[in-house]
Amino acid sequence: MPNLQPPITQVSDAISYHERLSRLAPGVTFLMSLFLHPGLNAATIAEAAQTKVIYGVKLYPAGVTTNSQDGVLDIEQYYHIFEAMEANGLVLNLHGEMISSPPSAFAKADGSGAVSVLNAEPMFLPQLYKLHAAFPQLRIILEHVSTREGLDAVRRCGPTVGGTITAHHLWMTVDDWCGDVFSFCKPVAKTAADRVALVRAVVEGSGKFFFGSDSAPHPVQSKKGAGGTAAGCFTQPWCTALVIGALEEGIDQGWIREEEVTRESLEGFLSGYGEAFYKIPQSMKSDGPRIRLERRGETISEAIKTQDGTIEVVPFRRGKEIWSVSWIE
What we know:
Elements: H1 11-24, E1 32-35, H2 42-51, E2 54-59, H3 79-88, E3 91-94, H4 120-134, E4 140-142, H5 148-156, E5 161-165, H6 174-177, H7 192-202, E6 209-211, H8 220-224, H9 239-253, H10 263-278, E7 290-294, E8 304-305, E9 312-313, E10 324-328
Parallel strand pairs: 1-2, 2-3, 3-4, 4-5, 5-6
Antiparallel strand pairs: 7-10, 8-9
Helix pairs in contact: 2-3
């Protein structure tokens, strides 16, 4: 994600960030993205495509999530960028929410046109349709889909539009995050019907939906300190197990059938569908180690601290039992 402080806006920034990440985790293939902003131009997009480490550009509507204050106010202002991305094969990653309306908007007529965090994603979807119609060959990902409407919009679009689903949205509704800052994310989790629809989408096998963790290790001070609460859930160490656990819950609740949770659907959602959408070169793919999931009584940590104790991060579903994951060499 490029919404750092400062944001990743230049090709050199992305390459430098990629190098730092690769030193920390040399066995991981990192796909970098740029933050969409007015300084981008067609030449920068062409340069980014040549790096072979930058795969996309992320569109954040201004102010809708953490560190997005410099995001987009007018999408059509960037049509020349989308044209260049389409020509150079870069992916447009959408944070698909409209900016919340001022209080005065709720007093007009019946208030149905006003935007809040609960309808911000459905209200954004006309923008997705408009972008897809204008740039039919531009690959677009509606990131961290959180609603039935978002899922249906991705299905209605052509094969160049996909959607990611997070582990935490598979576990939550509005009731879970409204009293817990460590479960607060953007887009926020919505209704029980939305959660059920997301679980079902994971195993539908269409290839339109694939995993995106959107994991955000915000320090406790950013979640509970002065000012607004940072949006994001920390799931990365347990994200695969969280997905499996959510599907297990879905079976227990009767939302999906056990026979729908196949090896093909799991591997597709967790890796294969995303690789295909991003057109990952065969040389970068691995047929190496696989993973094993087992019940060992493991629980998610209550908190994780740096060695010097200055930074503390509280994980999503802290203290809950979780599947254990190990590598099979």
